[in-house]
Amino acid sequence: MGLSNATFGLVGGFIVLPLPQMLAAEGVSEARIAAVSAACLSPGFWVFLLGPLLDVRFSRRWYASVFAGLAGVGLMMAVLMRGHLLVLEIALMTAYAAAVLSSNALGGWLAGIVPDVAETEHDNPSHKGASLSAWTQVGSYLGNGLMAGLAAEGLRLLPLNVAAVLLGALVVLPAAVFPWIPQPVASEKEPSQQRVWESLAGLLRELKALLKKREVLLTVLLFVAPTGAFALTNQLGGVAREFHASDAFVSRMGGAVLSLAGAASCLLLPVLARWVKALPLYLLIGTVGSLFTLSLQVLPKTPTTFAVAFLAENVMQALSFTAAVAICFATIGRDNPLAATQFSLLTSATVLPILYMAVVDGRAYSGFHSIRGLGGMYAIDGGLSLAACCVMAAVMWRRPRAHKK
User: Fold this and answer.
1) Cys-Cys crosslink for 357: which of 106, 231, 239, 405, Cβ 3.0 to 4.6 Å?
2) pTM for this one?
């Protein structure tokens, strides 16, 4: 069930590597390629605003399927129109937005069946949520790596029309498993049984109540804080020259090696979840990762250090986000009429610290008061993350005690 999230990874994987290569082959400038790539990835930050649509009228299975199909068509059109930048940009932006919406609909759908699956297998929802979360992220990572490899070869060896159709079909393929994923036991309560205006009226009432829930607000705060962002993963590639690492070495590290390492590390979460619940585990991962970042200051600036730092930071980020999705499943629970909306809101909150911490890390590297360079970037990134973990641990520790009072 989790591997069906590969649609999201496949579209994202195309934007990250094959798209720049394809545009460069068309003679597009580096500056323009960067602008197009950023625009195509932008739905990852704002598409959560459309999350409430996934809880209106139709089932989440229907939305996940339709948007997966739209993602495949959008990517196919982008490849076919690669000589028309504006059309390509619109098509690929639509494809990525559709992939995110499909993933969010799938997340809301899966959250509702976690308790049922746990009961059927005589397990507990916390562990099953961690296991399902791990496999959704494995699907995303493998989809990313698969597309990065297949798209480049397909565009080089096959006629353009054939390559476009095959890549579009590949994006839709993970949705083929949807008919075999069970619906929640209480599926008769889903919005698909209501009229459109009844669904919208109920949605507005439920959304207002959702935004007032203390548990939801605390979870958003947990994700917005830099507790598990590991934004350094996006910065190390740009400063690889300080480690005397070649471009080819960096590309190899960022390709299949990173995809396989990320996918493998996600599978550690269900094992760890046997002993530690998702929320304290998320903070524990953030704490260990922050201490590792701070320890990088004592290592020499060599290609080996770059490889260790790059892989470790990415592994920690993969584990952190997998734990975050498990927390989302636990927070959503069973029979939640706004499951997809809540999943969209919470997962989008995890993106925000990656953005602002990237800016902070960049400022630290170029000169932040008396701290600068790699040492300054390590100190600021690791120090702020560690402080955030300590503060949020104190807040979360007080929450059950306050509730009992």
Assistant:
1) 231
2) 0.86
